[in-house]
Amino acid sequence: MNELFEAIGSSAIGDFMAVNPYAFPAVETLHVIAITAVFGVIMIVDLRLLGLAGMSYAVTRMSRSLLPATWIAFLMAVVTGSLLFTSQPVTYAGNFSFRMKLLLIAAAGLNMLIFHFVTMRGIAAWDKDAPVPTAGRIAGGLSLLIWVCVVAFGRWIGFTMSPF
Questions:
Q1: Contact 126, 136 (CB under 8 A)
Q2: How many CB atoms lie within 10 A of CB 139?
Q3: Residues 135-157: tens digit of each pLDDT
Q4: pTM of the entire structure?
Q5: 3-class DSSP assignment, residue 60
Q6: How many domains does the chain have?
Q7: Close Cβ partners of 19 (under 8 Å, ≥ 6 residues apart)
Q8: Phi and psi of 53, rounded to 5°?
Q9: DSSP label at residue 163
Q10: Are 115 and 123 in contact (CB under 8 A)?
Q11: DSSP 3-state assignment of 64?
Q12: CA separation (Å) from 113 to 110, 118, 120?
């Protein structure tokens, strides 16, 4: 696996990201904006599920209107994160905070899948006027916790990376 990471780091993109004094900070800025958008939009839905905000909106209406923005921001975060990774792939791959961030993003995806394919089956009964069932509140709370941890571990990466 290290050979693959070394090849990525020595590629034209990896070299550009590592050497150009403007590339990494510019891409990192876009990455932070993207993650902020992902977290912000997801937080709106999670707070609705927890019954703390947006109670006048149906969960389905809110999800349907916010989902495209979430996916666009997430795609931007993946692209910019991948570009950042190319600058020091071996170092990133060995970084605990980086690995935890990726693991937590996978956990957020699993939580979302369970919510959409299991918890939302009975949404007609609680979409607007009834309290969100316990499973929905757990999904919202867990999502908030996971995304806060994604942001925290993402921020911690910069403090735990060894220099080039």
A1: yes
A2: 24
A3: 999 999 999 999 999 999 999 99
A4: 0.89
A5: helix
A6: 1
A7: none
A8: -165, 155
A9: P
A10: no
A11: helix
A12: 5, 8, 10
- Could you tell me the residue range of the domain that residue 77 belongs to? 2-160
SS (H, E, C) 115-162: HHHCHHHHHHHCCCCCCCCHHHHHHHHHHHHHHHHHHHHHHHHHHHCC
Question: Would you tell me how many other CB atoms lie within 10 Å of the CB of residue 107?
Answer: 16
Instruction: Residue 28: name the closest of 155, 161, 118 by CA.
Output: 155
Tokens of 37: 């958008």
Q: What is the residue-wise DSSP string for 68-126?
A: HHHHHHHHHHHHHHHHHHHHSHHHHHT-HHHHHHHHHHHHHHHHHHHHHHTGGGGGGGT
* Residue 126 in tokens: 């609680």
Tens digits of per-residue pLDDT, 90-122?
999 999 999 999 999 999 999 999 999 999 898
pLDDT in tens, 45-94: 999 999 998 888 899 999 999 999 999 999 999 999 999 999 999 999 99
